[in-house]
User: Fold these one by one.
Assistant:
Number 1:
Amino acid sequence: MKIAFTMDDLPLWPQSYPPAGYSAEGIVKSIRLALRENGIKGVYSFSNSWPLDKHPEMSVILDDWVADGHHIANHTHSHIELPDVSAEDFMADIDTAEHKLSRWVSQAPMKLFRHPLCHWGETEDKLREVNAHLELRGLTPVDVTSWAYEWTWNRAYRNAMDANDMGAMAFVRETFLEFSVAQLRHDMKTAQAWFGAEIVGITLGHNVPFYADVACDYFACLKEAGAEFVPLEDALRGPVQSAVGTVVSSEFLVLQQKLASASGHPIRKLPNDQRDLHARITEMAVGQSG
Ligand SMILES: [Zn+2]
């Protein structure tokens, strides 16, 4: 399984500030160390610039990311979601991010963009307008073929932490490793079935506290399961990239799921044997907003 790993939302996850014992800088540092430990290089972070306005000191997070040989790309200024705003407002937010992130994006080998929540546009007009704007700005939109729902595990983990329940924390960590391997295999299978060819997958991680704690084991586990981490450039050739932004969609879905859904034949999001576990973790995550 060849995969290009990417990160979203540096320097600060838009949904919440880190809890006591964690910091935005510390979380990203742990992830950087985990990447280094596992020999994963040149990782693109799709970043928002709003935290830099409120917390200028967070620019060091992006500096350190780039100093490690990783790259920064555009993920809008304020993490607005395309279905919630007009195409004009969305495009202006892209431009704001491009300006405020220019110090870092100018150092990246490629000028890339990812839509918040991977929404390409819920109407033909918005899809076309935003695609044209990205082209005008020389930005290549990059989607995702697999994610591991670590935001749900993060909420379950934070609930367990708040309750000081070490057993529950260990359960959340251990089950994530098992789940993430099964989810990656499932997504690689569905993407390859959809495209009818071997593809290079694009995976995604977020800078949340749980991910910082589990990242090193997570990458090692994926490698043990046969994942080979390759540069994002390798994933941006061929049928996967050609399909980005080709169908209207306002659902939170990975690329092949958006295409399949638009064709009227939706793909299962979760592997069958992980549904119960996912439901259990979702239950453990209730009440936690961050
Ligand atoms: Zn995001």
Note: The CA atoms of residues 142 and 267 lie 20 Å apart.
Number 2:
Amino acid sequence: MIAALLPPGLSGAELRDAGQKLVLHPGEEHHVARAAEKRHRDFALGRSCARAALAPLGHGVAAIGMGADGAPQWPAGILGSITHTSGYAAAVVGEAGSFLGVGVDAERVGGVARKLWPRLFNAAEQAHLAGRTDADVAATLLFSAKEAAFKAWRLKGALAFRDIAIALQEDGFTADHAGKQIRGRHAVEGELVLTLAWF
Ligand SMILES: CC(C)(COP(=O)(O)OP(=O)(O)OC[C@H]1O[C@@H](n2cnc3c(N)ncnc32)[C@H](O)[C@@H]1OP(=O)(O)O)[C@@H](O)C(=O)NCCC(=O)NCCS
């Protein structure tokens, strides 16, 4: 899925969890030393994707740290993003000299309960959903695009989901926040939704 979303210059990798053996970098283990099994597995899937995505950029054996806000810490000169949802993980990285930010997000359709829509989506987004026959897919796409934009912009603090406005197009989206705009692409495969935003 990820390959179809990547613009030139970004490198991506994805994994479907088939119970394969995953090895964390020794410098990463302390981040999940006391974590529950699922969190450990998700973290390892994400870090494995990140290392695979970094390999073409010459950083395939790097430890990927974690900032105080939870965001990954990339090797010098690199930026990127990691996502995981049940049974799937992906990572996208690029040269910091070519990109200012990148965010990737995966979600499962159905995870965005309808009762939450008024809190998550602005009036234009809710009108868009009302006109779609596949509203649950579209709501998941909107939610995921907000998360991808949030990661790409490295936003901080208590942000309402409604503060990032998404306009969905056939194969992409634009996200608006505080006078800034970012573009992105999306893909849907069965119940899995994947979004990527970059600038
Ligand atoms: C941090 C956040 C973006 C993660 O998204 P998610 O859909 O819950 O989970 P994902 O699996 O897609 O992403 C998790 C990964 O995001 C990365 N991440 C965590 N915090 C991050 C941050 N502040 N910025 C960028 N990336 C972050 C990490 O790599 C994490 O995986 P890891 O802990 O295994 O390294 C989300 O949980 C969050 O808190 N958002 C803030 C709420 C909000 O206001 N959202 C804005 C939408 S309008």
Note: The beta strands are 10-16, 65-66, 72-73, 78-85, 88-95, 102-108, 165-168, 172-177, 180-189, 192-198.
